[in-house]
Amino acid sequence: xxxxxxxxxxxxxxxxxxxxxxxxxxxxxxxxxxxxxxxxxxxxxxxxxxxxxxxxxxxxxxxxxxxxxxxxxxxxxxxxxxxxxxxxxxxxxxxxxxxxxxxxxxxxxxxxxxxxxxxxxxxxxxxxxxxxxxxxxxxxxxxxxxxxxxxxxxxxxxxxxxxxxxxxxxxxxxxxxxxxxxxxxxxxxxxxxxxxxxxxxxxxxxxxxxxxxxxxxxxxxxxxxxxxxxxxxxx
Length: 235
Fold this sequence. Notes:
- This protein starts with 11 loop residues before the first helix and ends in a 10-residue tail after the last strand.
- It is elongated.
- The protein folds into two domains: 1-122, Alpha-Beta Horseshoe (Leucine-rich repeat, LRR (right-handed beta-alpha superhelix)), CATH 3.80.10; 129-230, Alpha-Beta Horseshoe (Leucine-rich repeat, LRR (right-handed beta-alpha superhelix)), CATH 3.80.10.
- The chain is an alpha/beta fold.
- Helix content is 29%, strand content 16%.
């Protein structure tokens, strides 16, 4: 994703190298608390709006440090054990545009805590366990453009709710038990630019019907660029 911002992505891995000089410390030697404090100082003193943490496990307790960073626009946590309680601590980040949390244990309750983040455009929770009812509540995020979710609790009904989100342009579903009946709901999403489906029970017939309804859709299924997509379509 491209952002119109001059802010620099901050990673704990890069910061740990910086603090230690030229040599990278082992994972066991990293003082996570000290590194988080350095990140907070950078955000507060240099008006940084992006935090990306890739190599250090972030927990609910760690999120206490980020809750006061109300200018934060992007929070990307690629190694985490975040739960619903941790999601509650993100509710104050009213300027957040992009939220990505991998792993963890996030349910409907956790999602409910961030529904007041009205500026959120990109929501990426690939390891959540969300129900159809939770997906329905996402309509409260008026500017949501990208939705990437994994959940064994979602059904075709979630696709009906997704189809009613007029701002959505990009959807990626991971191991969501949907089928061709669910794809029918997406036929009305003329604004949809990209759909990725990994897992599920969709068939070639269902995908063909979808591409007939949305001939310009960029479609990937199980990590493959689908044959029905126009050859000149950009990845």
